Amino acid sequence: MIELARQHRQRLFEAMPENGMVVVTSGAEVIRNRDVEYHFRPQSDFFYLTGFEEPEACLVMTKRCDEAGQTKTMTGLFLRSKDPEKETWEGKRLGVDMAPNRLKIDQAWSNDQFESVMPTHMAGMETLWFSFDQLGHWLPRLQPMIESLKAQGRKGVTAPSRLEDLDHLLHEHRLIKSEAELAKLRKAAQVSVQGHLAAMQSVVAQRFEYQLQADLEATFKRHGAKREAFATIVAAGENACVLHYTENRAPIGANDLVLVDAGAEFEGYAGDITTTFPASGRFNQAQAQLYNWVLKAQRAAVDVIAPGVSYFQVHETARRVLVEGLVDCGILHGEVDALIEAEAYKPYFMHGTGHWLGMDVHDVGAYKQDGQWRLLEPGMVMTVEPGLYISSEDEKAPSDFRGLGIRIEDDVAVTDTGHEVLTLGLPRTVAEIEQWMQAHGEN
Ligand SMILES: [Mn+2]
Q1: Domain end: 127, 155, 174, which one?
Q2: Is residue 168 among the annotated active site residues?
Q3: 370 CA to centre of ligand 1 in angstroms
Q4: Long-range contacts, 284-288 (Cβ 8 Å, 24+)
Q5: Which of 66, 308, 345, 384 has its CA 20 to 30 A from that of 108?
Q6: Active-site option among 90, 247, 362, 393
Q7: Residues 141 and 185 placed together within one structural domain of the fold
Q8: How far apart, in Å, are the Cα atoms of 360 and each of 170, 205, 267, 274, 369?
Q9: 351 counts as catalytic
Q10: Which of 121, 167, 389, 434 is catalytic?
């Protein structure tokens, strides 16, 4: 990741105007309760540009045009100092001396030098770039430095005159994945596949949702994933109608479908898969009928993914098939176009068909440009995850469908000629799932 991060900085330097300074923080540890911290995970922008995982570190990049008209770049890092006592308790720190060599950067300073070192690098800069998601973090730190540089105006010192949101620049880079990044995403996807197979294998009626979660997450770890990419959802029966259900405490009913939405994080990159399968290993008639429509929608949406296709077309394709399915199941009545126009499907399909995927599970990058849904380009990676959710209290829906929640999700990369599904290897059709569960399941 260190070399990859160096390439990412190189690309950012090329895109930055001269006399600009970028600052990016890794973030701080957060207390969970009393003296226990949440497991630390650096901000994705920081990890993308450094490959460094310690908290309380700050990357500084400057691109300066010197008196001779030469462009000079500098990459520096503020980080925690070595501290033998703290390291005994909390783990090793890289430290200032080792950082330049190890991280392939020009300079490193300890965090307590921030106030003294920053102004010398900030002097003469025109633009300061940082994430406007962190205005509250940066403004109080940078304001006194800008003021003190301005106060030295008579000595010829100049202070930055512009603040820019780094997100606009950097997130466009992060949206387009390099071959090395795609390799990590493929690995995250394939580890995620293994986890889902483990959950599917271990489902038995009366087990608890969290027991499937345990099998799935253990499999992620066994394959080298450091953590989950987001909170695992294991939702049995009508719990599947709660889109971000993470409680995972309920027992699984004998006739339930189980919806699992989970992904592994591998070397900073996320997988994101949803599977839906019957606890008994057999779909009943209504479950199979609804499942087949969601699968048809999902496959139709994946099929349209190619360079030049509008992001929205993926959603539109899935939505049309889902509405056809809702009519076929007797849940909606009327003509498909009119039902789409009236958004009659919204109670049953209330989310988008996917999102960008990368270091963040809901990855960065604009979905629209100049008010238009953007066109897909090679190197973009997205999820495709249509679903149908029929509330158990929906008295208009035929009773067999009530309480069913079904979503099917794969991770798809846009290639030069079309697309590549990164999450292959799961049984997906009704027949494939039933056969697989009969062969491998604990039922
Ligand atoms: Mn997703």
Answers
A1: 174
A2: no
A3: 25
A4: 284/255, 284/400, 285/400, 286/329, 286/398, 286/400, 286/401, 286/404, 287/257, 287/404, 287/406, 288/430
A5: 66
A6: 362
A7: no
A8: 14, 34, 12, 17, 21
A9: yes
A10: 389
125 with 224, same domain: the answer is no
Of the pLDDT bands very low, low, confident and very high (cuts 50, 70, 90), residue 420 is: very high
Asked if residues 129 and 23 have their Cβ atoms less than 8 Å apart, the reply is: yes
Residue 66 — pLDDT band, cuts 50, 70, 90? confident
Mean pLDDT of the chain: 96
> CB atoms < 10 A from the CB of 320, how many?
18
Q: Average pLDDT, stretch 338-354? A: 96
Given 409, 410, 411, 434, which residue is catalytic? 409
409 catalytic, yes or no? yes
pLDDT higher than threshold 90 for residue 215: yes
Same-domain check for residues 137 and 272: no
Query: What is the pTM assigned to this prediction?
Result: 0.95
Contacts for 345 with CB less than 8 Å, ≥ 6 apart? 319, 322, 323, 326, 332, 339
Question: Same structural domain for residues 191 and 97?
Answer: no
Do 138 and 189 reside in the same domain of the chain?
no
213 in the same domain as 115: no
Q: Domain count of the chain?
A: 2
Per-residue pLDDT of 8-40, as tens digits, reads 999 999 999 999 999 999 999 999 999 999 999
Is the CB of residue 422 less than 8 Å from the CB of residue 184? no
Please indicate whether residue 171 is annotated as part of the active site: no
| CATH for 65 | 3.40.350.10
Same domain, 268 and 149: no
- The per-residue DSSP string of 247-268 comes to ---SBPPTT-EEEEEE-EEETT
Report CA(82)–ligand 1 centroid distance (Å). 40
Last residue of a domain, one of 135, 152, 174: 174
Summarize the confidence of residues 127-133 as an average pLDDT: 96
Does 238 participate in catalysis according to the annotation? no
CA distance 54 to 39: 11
CATH number at residue 351: 3.90.230.10
| pLDDT per residue as tens digits for the range 74-105 | 999 999 999 999 999 989 999 999 999 999 99
Query: What integer pLDDT is reported at residue 383 of this predicted model?
Result: 98
Per-residue model confidence as pLDDT tens digits over 372-400: 999 999 999 999 999 999 999 999 999 99
267 has catalytic annotation: no
Q: Is the pLDDT confidence value at 5 over 80?
A: yes
Q: Are 158 and 278 part of one and the same domain?
A: no
Q: Say what the pLDDT of residue 371 is.
A: 94
For residues 210-234, give the mean pLDDT.
97
